[in-house]
Write a structure and sequence with these properties.
about 140 residues, mainly alpha, 3 strands
Length: about 140
């Protein structure tokens, strides 16, 4: 547990240094949703984002304005329907995701070597047995 708690804490540190997390998780959740759907090849509309997140529409709109002003996101109008606006990651968000991935990979390598340093050589080479084996039942 200690190693996983440490790893999670370090991931959170990396997150707070790269993404907008001041005050609440709302801005971060917006960035994560927009980035996630963009990665899947889908572009969220403002309306879809409101349905996606468990926050008030007013809170989402307020944070969207700030994120757009700070170049985290871009809002693009639909060509076919002027009422529809699409949310796409801004260059700042793309760079933050890339940097977060690099830091996460480095942290994972570091975490693995820390765990391996605490184990005996036998523990690394011996195959693990199942916690419950079929023969151990009474």
């Amino acid at each position: 547990m200690t190693a996983s708690a440490h790893f999670t804490y370090r991931l959170r540190e990396a997150c707070s240094g790269l993404f907008p997390v001041e005050g609440s998780n709302l801005a971060l959740d917006i960035c994560l949703a927009v980035g996630h759907y963009h990665f899947l090849g889908k572009t969220l509309t403002m309306k879809q984002l409101v349905y996606e997140l468990p926050y008030s529409e007013a809170g989402i709109q307020y944070n969207l304005r700030q994120l757009r002003d700070e170049k985290w996101l871009e809002v693009e109008p639909s060509e076919s329907d002027k009422r529809v606006r699409y949310l796409v990651p801004g260059q700042r968000l793309v760079e933050a995701f890339d940097q977060f991935m690099a830091e996460t990979e480095a942290l994972l390598v570091s975490q693995r070597s820390d765990v391996e340093d605490t184990l005996d050589d036998d523990e690394l080479t011996e195959p693990r047995t199942a916690f419950f084996s079929p023969t151990s039942r009474n």
